[in-house]
């Protein structure tokens, strides 16, 4: 039995269920991150070749069966960058605090460089 494939499929189902079933936006974001990670894991598991070497051609040896395909690894590096970009934006937006108005600050006025006491 191939247990890594079962783990990847289990993570896919957990992430998809979390995105569909939860109403909380942060939980949906966590589900989306788990789903993206499971997809990356699944593609990397598909690209593994036992006893394969790096695709650096040596003199006299040109048998492609002995080399690993670098394309899935490159595509998954791109997917990791996209996952970081898509998950970082909502997290950053959720962490932004609304600044209070100047009149609500206790005796402070806003200057371009710093807050100063009002006289």
Can you give a write-up of this model?
By secondary structure, the chain is mostly helical. The chain has a single domain, classed as Helix Hairpins, CATH 1.10.287. The chain has 3 helices and 2 strands. It has helices spanning about 5-20, 25-45, 70-95, and strands spanning about 110, 115. It has a two-stranded antiparallel sheet. A hairpin with a 4-residue loop joins strand 1 (about 110) and strand 2. Helix 1 (about 5-20) packs antiparallel against helix 2 and helix 2 (about 25-45) runs antiparallel to helix 3 (about 70-95). The longest helix is centred in the C-terminal third of the chain and has 25 residues, at about 70-95. The protein is elongated, with a radius of gyration of 25 Å. It starts with a helix and ends with a strand. The model has no long low-confidence stretch (mean pLDDT about 75).
How is the topology of this model organized?
Layout: H1 3-21, H2 25-46, H3 71-95, E1 108-110, E2 115-117
Antiparallel strand pairs: 1-2
Helix pairs in contact: 1-2, 2-3
Distance between the termini: 76 Å
Proportion of beta-strand residues: 5-15%
Number of strands: 2
Structural class: mainly alpha
In N-to-C order, the SSE pattern is HHHEE
What is the CATH level 1 assignment? Mainly Alpha
Classify the helix fraction into a percent range: 55-70%
Radius of gyration: 25 Å
**DSSP helical segment count:** 3
- Tell me the number of structural domains: 1
Shape: elongated
What is the fold named in CATH at topology level?
Helix Hairpins
Largest β-sheet summary: 2 strands, antiparallel
